[in-house]
TrEMBL record:
Family: Belongs to the mitochondrial carrier (TC 2.A.29) family.
Protein name: Mitochondrial thiamine pyrophosphate carrier
Natural source organism: Bos mutus grunniens
Role according to the record: Mitochondrial transporter mediating uptake of thiamine diphosphate into mitochondria. It is not clear if the antiporter activity is affected by the membrane potential or by the proton electrochemical gradient.
A cellular component term, taken from the record's GO annotations: mitochondrial inner membrane
Length: 320
C-alpha cells in the first residue's frame, strides 16, 4: 500500500528503504520510457500544427517522429539528456515517496482525517511532489534542454550545459518554468496518488479474489489508469512549462520550425491560445498519455515491489 495505512500497513520498513524504493522505481522506469519522453517534448515545443496538412510541421505523429529522429540523429537521440533525466528520476522518486509516507502518517497521528481518504492522498501527494520538484527542478531544466536540442548540439556534455547556461543566462535559468511546474505538479501528483488508491480499492471490490492473488498486476493496472486520468486533467500546464524552460534557447530550436519568446506563464498561455488554438494546449498529448500510463504504472509497480521486498527481508531477519 502506498501511504500510511493504520489498519493494514504492516510493512515495517525504514525511511531510508522508502527512499531507496522510490529512487529505484524512478530509475528503472526512466530507462524504459525515455524515447516517449523525447518525442513528447519535441511535440510540445513545436509551434506548427501536428498535422500532415501543415507543410512546415516537422513532426505530425508518434511513429513518423520516431522514424525521423532515428534517421536524422540516430538511436541515441531517444536517450538525449538521459543522465540529467536519471538524476531527476532518482532524486524525485526518493523525495516524493518519502514525503508522501511521512505526510500521510502525520495526518493519521494528528487525528485530523482518515489517512486513506481521497482528499488526504490528494493533498499529501500534491505537497510531496512540490517538495520533490523544488529539490530537482534544475535537473529538469537541463533534461529539457538536452532533449530539445537538435544537431549540431549546443551542449556537448552535462558540465558544458551547466557552465554555458549559468554564464549566458544567469543562475535563475535553472528555475525557469518553476511556477507552472508547481501549479501543474500539485494537482497532477495529487490525482495520481488519490486515484491510484481509489482504483486499487475499486479493483479489490470488483474482483476480491483476484485482488489478493495478482497484487503486482493490480498495482501496474491501477497505476496506469491513474497516470492517464491525471495527465489528461493537467496537461496544458505541462506544455506551458516546457515552452518556458527553453526560453533563451531559440538558436537550438531553429531547425525544428518557428520559435517564440514568452514573458511568463500568462503570456505563454495567451500566445498559445491565440496562435495555435485550444488544441495547441494539448500538443503531444498522445505520446504523453502513453508515457503517463507506462511511467506511472511502472513507478507504482516497482515501488510497491521493492517495499514488499524490504518488508520480507526484515521478516526473514527477525527472530522467530
Amino acid at each position: 500500500m502506498v501511504g500510511y495505512d493504520p489498519k493494514a500497513d504492516d510493512r515495517d520498513i525504514s525511511n531510508v528503504e522508502v527512499a531507496v524504493a522510490g529512487s529505484v522505481s524512478g530509475l528503472v522506469t526512466r530507462v524504459l520510457i525515455s524515447p516517449l519522453d523525447v518525442i513528447k517534448i519535441r511535440f510540445q515545443l513545436q509551434i506548427e500544427r501536428l498535422s500532415r496538412s501543415d507543410p512546415n510541421a516537422k513532426y505530425h505523429g508518434i511513429l513518423q517522429a520516431g522514424r525521423q529522429i532515428l534517421q536524422e540523429e540516430g538511436p541515441t537521440a531517444f536517450w538525449k539528456g538521459h543522465i540529467p533525466a536519471q538524476l531527476l528520476s532518482i532524486g524525485y522518486g526518493a523525495v516524493q515517496f518519502l514525503s508522501f509516507e511521512v505526510l500521510t502518517e502525520l495526518v493519521h497521528r494528528a487525528s485530523v482525517r482518515d489517512a486513506r481518504d481521497f482528499s488526504v492522498h490528494f493533498l499529501c501527494g500534491g505537497l510531496s511532489a512540490c517538495v520533490a520538484t523544488l529539490a530537482v527542478h534544475p535537473v529538469d531544466v537541463l533534461r529539457t534542454r538536452f532533449a530539445a536540442q537538435g544537431e549540431p548540439r549546443v551542449y556537448k556534455t552535462l558540465r558544458d550545459a551547466v557552465v554555458t547556461m549559468y554564464r549566458t543566462e544567469g543562475p535563475l535559468v535553472f528555475y525557469k518554468g518553476l511556477n507552472p511546474t508547481l501549479i501543474a505538479i500539485f494537482p497532477y501528483a495529487g490525482f495520481q496518488f488519490s486515484i491510484y488508491s481509489s482504483l486499487k480499492r475499486a479493483y479489490e471490490w470488483a474482483l476480491p479474489a483476484e485482488g489478493k492473488k495478482n497484487g503486482n498486476f493490480k498495482n501496474l493496472l491501477c497505476g496506469s489508469g491513474a497516470g492517464v486520468i491525471s495527465k489528461t486533467l493537467t496537461y496544458p500546464l505541462d506544455l506551458f512549462k516546457k515552452r518556458l524552460q527553453v526560453g533563451g534557447f531559440e538558436q537550438a530550436r531553429a531547425s525544428f520550425g518557428q520559435v517564440r519568446s514568452y514573458k511568463g506563464l500568462l503570456d505563454c498561455a495567451g500566445q498559445v491560445l491565440r496562435e495555435e488554438g485550444a488544441q495547441g494546449c494539448f500538443k503531444g498529448l498522445s505520446p504523453s498519455l502513453l508515457k503517463a500510463a507506462l511511467s506511472t504504472g511502472l513507478v507504482f509497480f516497482w515501488y510497491e515491489l521493492f517495499c514488499n521486498f524490504f518488508h520480507h527481508m526484515r521478516k526473514a531477519d527477525s527472530p522467530r
